[in-house]
């Protein structure tokens, strides 16, 4: 399963790679990273079919996570549509409502609970 | 003829009595002078009865001269000197007459009219002088009175002015205290705006610290497992990861530390200590704080941040928290301007805030540009004034730009220029001397 992680913080990359060390080694999960909404869209245009799940931060300079979500739902709606999980440091109602309205599959708050994330990923892969 | 001399003496005594009537001299002199008047008439009587012509005249003139000499010598009668001196011609003329009668009686008899005329003239002279001295005295008194009134007025005015000066000084002191308080509250207000930004900025590194330490613990467990398996290569890889993680923990810890330090610096009363500062770092730090501060308040807000930093910029001696406050203020204004424009719902509008630094000659230039609502022409010259704000009540103190002006122009000898087209863009250009 290929997961695209979108976050403007570069250190998210080693964190994910280490947190999912076992999964990566056993080839269960493969990660790609993008540091902005624009980069993520660019990546999706190239390799849309490979990406099964997208984890995106909401608060990023330039294109926000919500905007990225809107683009994904508009431009990449060929079935099966990718699962999109939104992540934000501001875990408030407004962000949650907006994300769900724009078609997010799930909503997570920072700091990320990786155990919870792993469980969620499991449910999505089982589906 | 000697009667004239006695009349003169009598009038002189009377007048002196009259003049000193309302002065402290009266108590000392009035009885003496009254006795003198009586004595005078006694002398006159005896002189008329017992002394033969022309010696009666001699007695009279000596008596007059004696009285004049006495008054002249006494400093109590200095103010009457002018009047006393007016008797001199009478004394001199009478004396000449007496001498002439004694030694040249024939000559005198022949020209008696001239002598009589001379005595009468010098007698009248006394009255002429008296009249004019009286007039002078009145004028003098009037002037004196005016002087007294003027002195009093001047004293009153002086007291009034002194009082006003004291009041003004008090007011100035009060104003200075208020100004200090206002500056402090403006700092606190901007700190308040910053709080959300700061919270976000600190939360991120803290998350990394927590995450990397957690993942490192997991890695150590895994390392144990690999060791048991005997996979040395994998153990080495894990150890390397752990080392990297520790490095990351340190990095993010320092990042949070820097933010807290910056926050403390910002809220602290300005120490006015200039220190070599990297303006690029300062601008970048405050740009992020301002952005996250606004984002925390308005979640839907998003803007593109563009930075053009001149890497060859030298360190510059400034008070970093003061200039930081200016930058923060300008970023806040820039974000506010693009936010207002975004609310108008213009199609295709992409909020952009741009900060650039460059060295031009002996100046370092920091430019903060936004593509927001711009500044209307009619308020351009007002925006640096204290308390001027276009923001709704409660959203701006109106002191931000005025304080910025004080910090850049007055404290750092720099310059602030404003370039703006309403509805298009606004650019604040700060120039700091190297």
Description:
The complex is a heterodimer of chains A (127) and B (434). Chain A is an alpha/beta fold. Helix content of chain A is 45%, strand content 21%. Chain A has one domain: Response regulator (Rossmann fold, 3-Layer(aba) Sandwich). Chain A has helices spanning 12-19, 21-25, 37-47, 65-75, 93-101, 114-126, and strands at 2-6, 30-34, 51-57, 83-88, 106-109. In chain A, helix 5 links the parallel strand 4 and strand 5. Among the domains of chain B are: 2-110, no CATH class; 272-434, 2-Layer Sandwich (Heat Shock Protein 90). Chain B has a 5-stranded mixed β-sheet, covered by helices on one side. Chain B is rod-shaped and about 170 Å long. Chain B is α+β, with helices and mostly antiparallel strands and 434 residues long. In chain B, strand 6 (415-421) and strand 7 form a beta hairpin. The mean pLDDT of chain B is 84. The interface between A and B is medium-sized, with 25 and 29 residues.
Write the layout of secondary structure elements.
The complex is a heterodimer of chains A (127) and B (434).
Chain A: E1 2-6, H1 12-19, H2 21-25, E2 30-34, H3 37-47, E3 51-57, H4 65-75, E4 83-88, H5 93-101, E5 106-109, H6 114-126
Parallel strand pairs in A: 1-2, 1-3, 3-4, 4-5
Helix pairs in contact in A: 3-4
Chain B: H1 2-19, H2 25-50, H3 55-73, H4 81-85, H5 88-103, H6 105-110, H7 112-229, H8 232-267, E1 275-277, H9 279-297, E2 304-308, E3 316-318, H10 320-343, E4 352-360, E5 363-370, H11 400-411, E6 415-421, E7 425-433
Helix pairs in contact in B: 1-2, 1-3, 3-5, 5-7, 7-8, 7-9, 9-10, 10-11
* Fraction of residues in H or I helices of chain B: 55-70%
By CATH reckoning, the class of the domain at 272-434 in chain B would read Alpha Beta
| CATH architectural designation of the domain at 272-434 in chain B | 2-Layer Sandwich
SSE succession of chain A: EHHEHEHEHEH
- The outline of chain B comes out as rod-shaped
Q: What is the helix tally of chain B?
A: 11
Q: Please outline the major beta sheet of chain B.
A: 5 strands, mixed
β-strand percent of chain A reads 15-25%
* DSSP strand count of chain B: 7
CATH topology-level fold name of the domain at 272-434 in chain B: Heat Shock Protein 90
Distance N to C terminus of chain B: 106 Å
Largest pleated sheet of chain A: 5 strands, parallel
Number of domains of chain A: 1
List the quaternary state of the chains. Answer: heterodimer
